[in-house]
What we know:
The protein is of the alpha/beta class and 186 residues long. The protein is 29% helix and 24% strand. The longest helix has 17 residues.
Amino acid sequence: MNHLSDAFKFKITVCGDGAVGKTSLIKRYTSDTFEKDYISTLGMHFSKYEEDVAGEKVELLLWDLAGQESFGSLRDRFYAGSSGAIIVFSLAPEELETYNHVGKWLSDLREACGNIPIILFGNKADLVDQNALATSPDYTTSDVHVLKFAQDNKFIKYYKTSALSGQDVEEAFQTLVIKLYQRATI
């Protein structure tokens, strides 16, 4: 049995605007569940989860930050010590403006944490087909536009996720965890 060392404990900050599905994504990843009754995160919620990577136990400390602007002054304290991060925006037709705030989330994270690995999630992919604009090449959340934005801003990767169906949630989290593990073992 492998012993958990400090080298394999990672704090992952999950941030983005309110109601984009951060809490639901974490629950889907950690317990493979989805709850329709949603209570907004106030301030921050903390979860622990263990993952096996290359035969080693990796402990994840998942920090779910409230996206409402009223909690903005607290975020710098919550970012401190982050090994990696996930920025989430919503692909739901009525919430597409959340993508416009990704740059601010990224800037705040980089200012507080430096050049940590970050993954971009476009969540609620199960709702994309409800609105033709969401998949239009002219629209700012088109795959081409978001992929270019992610590449230009040095995100590890962009995933279209669905906390409801589980689409790409596990793979996306594991991509970040593997990257953090690789950095710790170099």
